[in-house]
Amino acid sequence: MSWNLHSTHAQAGDLVELVGLRHSHFIFRLEQGGKLETHRGIVYHDDLIGKPWGMQVFSHLGNPFFLLQPSLGDLLLDTPRITQIMYPKDIGFVLVNLGIGPGQHVVEAGTGSGSLTCALAFAVGSGGRVTSYDTRPDIQKLAIANIDRLGLSDRVYFKLKDIGEGFDETNVDALFLDVQNPFDYMEQVRACIKPGGFFGSILPTVNQVIHLLTALKQNNFAFIEVCEVLLRYYRTDVNHFRPTDRMVAHTGFLVFARPVIFVNEDTRSELLDDSSGIVLQSSDE
Amino acid sequence: MSWNLHSTHAQAGDLVELVGLRHSHFIFRLEQGGKLETHRGIVYHDDLIGKPWGMQVFSHLGNPFFLLQPSLGDLLLDTPRITQIMYPKDIGFVLVNLGIGPGQHVVEAGTGSGSLTCALAFAVGSGGRVTSYDTRPDIQKLAIANIDRLGLSDRVYFKLKDIGEGFDETNVDALFLDVQNPFDYMEQVRACIKPGGFFGSILPTVNQVIHLLTALKQNNFAFIEVCEVLLRYYRTDVNHFRPTDRMVAHTGFLVFARPVIFVNEDTRSELLDDSSGIVLQSSDE
Amino acid sequence: MSWNLHSTHAQAGDLVELVGLRHSHFIFRLEQGGKLETHRGIVYHDDLIGKPWGMQVFSHLGNPFFLLQPSLGDLLLDTPRITQIMYPKDIGFVLVNLGIGPGQHVVEAGTGSGSLTCALAFAVGSGGRVTSYDTRPDIQKLAIANIDRLGLSDRVYFKLKDIGEGFDETNVDALFLDVQNPFDYMEQVRACIKPGGFFGSILPTVNQVIHLLTALKQNNFAFIEVCEVLLRYYRTDVNHFRPTDRMVAHTGFLVFARPVIFVNEDTRSELLDDSSGIVLQSSDE
Amino acid sequence: MSWNLHSTHAQAGDLVELVGLRHSHFIFRLEQGGKLETHRGIVYHDDLIGKPWGMQVFSHLGNPFFLLQPSLGDLLLDTPRITQIMYPKDIGFVLVNLGIGPGQHVVEAGTGSGSLTCALAFAVGSGGRVTSYDTRPDIQKLAIANIDRLGLSDRVYFKLKDIGEGFDETNVDALFLDVQNPFDYMEQVRACIKPGGFFGSILPTVNQVIHLLTALKQNNFAFIEVCEVLLRYYRTDVNHFRPTDRMVAHTGFLVFARPVIFVNEDTRSELLDDSSGIVLQSSDE
């Protein structure tokens, strides 16, 4: 049952978020007879079951909390992790740019702690399919638990396999690589993704990006784009409205490209020697 | 059939994107016997039908193009418009933050040219529902055509109605306002959205944001966040890697909030007088 | 005498910076017989006197440091403070935009801890003059010490006076306000600054900026510009080149304007009703 | 006499800026009997001589202009050019970070169109000295004219010489390279700049920055910093306050470093192998 976003009241089995004053928050599954111990007192699950979402509730010490459904963004940021996770700002842009939606078949590697896996699994719906590769059993185990927490396991296939040996799938709609050396797997990616499909990757350093760009061009990927998504928050005091003092300045560079098929080698060189690459939308003036 | 993202070959009825050198691109529906006239020659639809996606094809003058499925991002940017549209960078973040996914019921106003409508309709899938309000028949007519182009009309309900008179729906999962004066409709929004549901808005000016923040606090919305999504593109020349010279510096401020129910008025004042508002994730250190 | 930037060797009386491994640094004046105690050992001033700048020196425990002349930027960041100070990124842009250079007469209020005062005093040279107003004796006392530390006291005039009563100077070249309510002093500013002179201000919140813009337009200031200077640092590892993880996202909005004299009221209304103000350089396309 | 920033009235020989409605502006020298022809009519110099700065004046067709002293920023942006010039946002930060002020001796290469040369010459004052190298006579000729326009020729020494053969100066306070291959001149830079002096450079691409970082570390430069200065402008309409739609996203990466002298090679390797380099101010959290 789990993360049932279109209910109006909290029920046993639901994934809920309890938010106290001063930003403390807790995401957990509601169970009859359960209790949550906080430094502001105990909250009994039975006091929450049946309450409408958004309701103010209280700990046994009288401290107030709000009972909420966690948003996808909250869940992604709250993902239990032993690796760096992808941020909602990057995930949202990746979903739109790769055209991820209900019914699609997407492949990713590596699984990591599974934050992107969760987002992909949510977006493709029960009719879609996400296949996620990693070589580290302990890490993938955590991702499996994270997917299970959201009740999305029915559509996710985890594989413990080195993608250097190739992906098992062919003709997938989109493929995303969150590994240190994506440039080493371009042949495997081309064999897995359908022609004209959507390829994406996230990389922290410029050196990796330059390496990947070279590999993409050598492997007949076109329409290559590199960008960064920056998120700037504002303080919400209406009399003192201003940006926050500090911000996350860098998570990673996003790289997007599409595998194409050349009939004519002349245009290939014209296309791929082009110093600025090919972009669909002119991102510069 | 329209925009069938998990096919491998172009078929009659498909929405296709043809991309030439130097960034020219065309999005259109493939029809037997059809033809596309470009300044680089005529492309016959029959030459495209049956070809794999990603294939290089040629006009009658021998000029090369690539045959692609448009990405959601491409379609959003290509939306025929008579109003300002929302950009993919903002739409992606809104989808994640409002938790939009398969099966949800979402309300938006105003419809505008329908770029967000398209993204919402795609994300909720065939089991979901998008209701879109506007008061301008000519504008909504264009949005209807834009939704129809993507083959997503089955899940979208267009209404020509002033939202000042209230929304017809109740207990919807998420509601997004892209109107000039969202602050005037807070009561109507609360009556439409379920408690604890997801509210979002996009506004170009700071004055509007400050006005909306005031209205949100007066109407018992909490967990208010204001942010901007900035997108920085890079040139893809591997020997001269650098950011593009110019960028889009501002599209709009995104505002997110959730309607809550207060039992205890004391904590209400503590919550809502709080100068920095309540945020789930500490966006500042 | 103090901060003698064009010497080649450290001498008694010089302001020096000692930088250890792991970013620890110390700025102090060199004195015969003096010593600096650090958690990495004692450094004797006599071991530093006569050494060339840039030299590696050692504490009594053998720990290495570098002997440097502090840059203006280092000194500004190191300013002993009891108020928020202006950052080098903002100060540099203000100096260029107000045309501050040798021989100029500049007025500022409030003095604060004196970081901008130091930069102005350095830039106008021994033939220039900086007059700095504040109403808080304790704060100005600190600024006086900070100016003295740099040996720039000869050109700085500190005044303990409420600028609401007017500035004592007239026809000054440039005037900078770093106070909470600059909009309350527009008449006083016009009486102090010469026509066509340079006005600048820094303000943390949008509300203050909007208030100041209104006051500037009412007081016949034109060529108004509002901007923010953002500084993005990169990690310097050549194999893992990338932006730093976090950055200062906001210090303040910079506002620049120039007092003008209208002969013809018709153009006044045309100028000042103009919704986008007048800018010398088109900062937007 | 030229650019006499502390006068109150326009005089023959002054460099003036005339600004019309709709952003048109003209920078020129005032001469008795002179005239300026604009598409909005002729402005006679004799009508301007003796007027206070900031005054509204009119063309023979009655069109209004303002008579202003150009700011340093205006002059830099208005520099006649046949090469890319440095922007005020970058120049201001360079001046502060290199500690450029009255009396200093600074070396730069290449001269280019001389926008940085003008700023340096202005900042060092009549007691300072700027030596500027270039190998292209036509380009340096333009820079000489640009310096002359500001009346700052007395302190600038232009040299037509390949810096690969070495700089003629030694022990200079600061040295700035605005050339494509600064990494090829590190030995020459060390021979010219005094130990502990200030080195800076601006480079458009990441590839150049990485190359320079490597060369700096090999040549015993420490305290290396790489950053970008971004400038975000706002529209000044008080009822519709918001950032401008587009902005300059990239001019160049600024690199700063200081030549040091190692006594102890152990700490050298510790310092220079350090993956994140040494920074004086912790620019990251």
Gist of the model:
The first copy, chain A, has 285 residues and is an alpha/beta fold. Chain A has helices spanning 72-78, 88-97, 115-124, 137-149, 186-192, 206-218, 265-273; strands spanning 15-20, 25-29, 35-38, 41-44, 56-58, 64-68, 105-109, 129-134, 156-160, 172-177, 193-203, 221-235, 242-243, 246-248, 253-259. Chain A is elongated and about 75 Å long.
Tell me about this structure.
By secondary structure, chain A is of the alpha/beta class. Chain A has 2 domains: 15-70, Vcp-like ATPase, Chain A, domain 2, CATH 3.10.330.20; 73-273, Vaccinia Virus protein VP39 (Rossmann fold). Chain A is 24% helix and 31% strand. Chain A has 7 helices and 15 strands. In chain A, the strands form 3 sheets. The first copy, chain A, has an 8-stranded mixed sheet, with helices on both faces. A 4-stranded antiparallel sheet of chain A has the order 2-1-6-5, with no helix packed on it. In chain A, strand 12 and strand 13 (242-243) form a beta hairpin. In chain A, helix 1 packs antiparallel against helix 3 (115-124). The longest helix of chain A is centred in the middle third of the chain and has 13 residues, at 137-149. Residues 274-285 of chain A have low confidence and may be disordered. Strand 12 (221-235) of chain C pairs antiparallel with strand 12 of chain D.
